[in-house]
Amino acid sequence: MKNTPVTIKDIARSLNISISTVSRALRGLPEIHPTTRDAVVRLAEELDYQPNQLAKNLAKSRTKTIGVIVPNLSYHFFSAMLNSIEEAALQAGYSVLVCQTNESYLREITNIQNLLRSQVEGFIISLSRDTDNYEHVERLARKNIPLVLFDRYAESIDVSKVIVDNEAAAFKATEHLIENGCQRIGFLAGPARLVLSNQRIKGYQAALEKHKVQVGDQYVFHCDYTQENTIMQTIAMMSLPQPPDGVVTISDRVAYPAIYAMKQKGLRVPDDVAVVSFNNEPVSAFFSPALSSISQPIQEMGTETVRLLLNQLDAKDGMTVKETRIMDTQLIVRASSLRSTA
């Protein structure tokens, strides 16, 4: 299978026209006959031609620039990851261009296109909440463009990844609630398509099964990470005929509005409902009550992400082994999960 990038020379040869004609047609210049322009554009799409592709750039020069795409830098996890990535990249002599998707699939595609035009040498990406089609990322992999996914990824994309053991972490969080006397434990999850969220649900279910805690799927609620939707889902969860006395939330950003909603219903945390979350954001220690949360090794994750990308950038002829680094987590226990009745 041919992996080398398609060039305008290839298109010109196939259509028996000049390279300059192809170039002008692709730029939409008016002096090109519409029939010729349509033929060029159609063939370019069929051959998956990409202007300013990385392979072409590297053949000419090195920009020493890495493109990083994250869902939202207002999330502590991603801003902290960026700090670690940038520090590791700078130590290796690379600069970083950063884009946010704001959880938009279409914006994720645009970010990739813009970074390609900026001639980045490789990509570090965490997928958006809305991404359910991975062709734009798979295209980078097919073109042998150095790429590492972290935190949010798709199992179908065969590239290097840096993630945590989400199942083990959720198992740990759920077991902690069980050991503190919770008998009906709910899970406030992320979007149903999100691999990370589904892995954590599996860990939650495994802990329930191990300890023979009988709860059904009705105790799993999915939210979209917004405060409004989280409050709505929390109220629905706590309005069950037998509401949970313990809740695991997908992230601290979800836990904050969830606890707010619980308090609005007159519930006391942790006495009426204990809460454990993920990400261990700095504010969690100062929240009321202080939030128990799973801490991820962010500094190490960022460093490892850059290391895996540099391995690809330094490889000869693109011959690199795809690696997946799965890292351990730590449960930080605070007041929100310590029930006085336990």
From TrEMBL:
<dbReference type="Pfam" id="PF00356">
    <property type="entry name" value="LacI"/>
</dbReference>
<dbReference type="GO" id="GO:0001216">
    <property type="term" value="F:DNA-binding transcription activator activity"/>
</dbReference>
<dbReference type="GO" id="GO:0000976">
    <property type="term" value="F:transcription cis-regulatory region binding"/>
</dbReference>
<dbReference type="InterPro" id="IPR000394">
    <property type="entry name" value="RNA_pol_sigma_54"/>
</dbReference>
<protein>
    <submittedName>
        <fullName>LacI family transcriptional regulator</fullName>
    </submittedName>
</protein>
<dbReference type="InterPro" id="IPR010982">
    <property type="entry name" value="Lambda_DNA-bd_dom_sf"/>
</dbReference>
<dbReference type="InterPro" id="IPR028082">
    <property type="entry name" value="Peripla_BP_I"/>
</dbReference>
<dbReference type="Pfam" id="PF13377">
    <property type="entry name" value="Peripla_BP_3"/>
</dbReference>
<dbReference type="InterPro" id="IPR000843">
    <property type="entry name" value="HTH_LacI"/>
</dbReference>
<keyword id="KW-0805">Transcription regulation</keyword>
<keyword id="KW-0804">Transcription</keyword>
<feature type="domain" description="HTH lacI-type">
    <location>
        <begin position="6"/>
        <end position="60"/>
    </location>
</feature>
<keyword id="KW-0238">DNA-binding</keyword>
<dbReference type="InterPro" id="IPR046335">
    <property type="entry name" value="LacI/GalR-like_sensor"/>
</dbReference>
<dbReference type="GO" id="GO:0016987">
    <property type="term" value="F:sigma factor activity"/>
</dbReference>
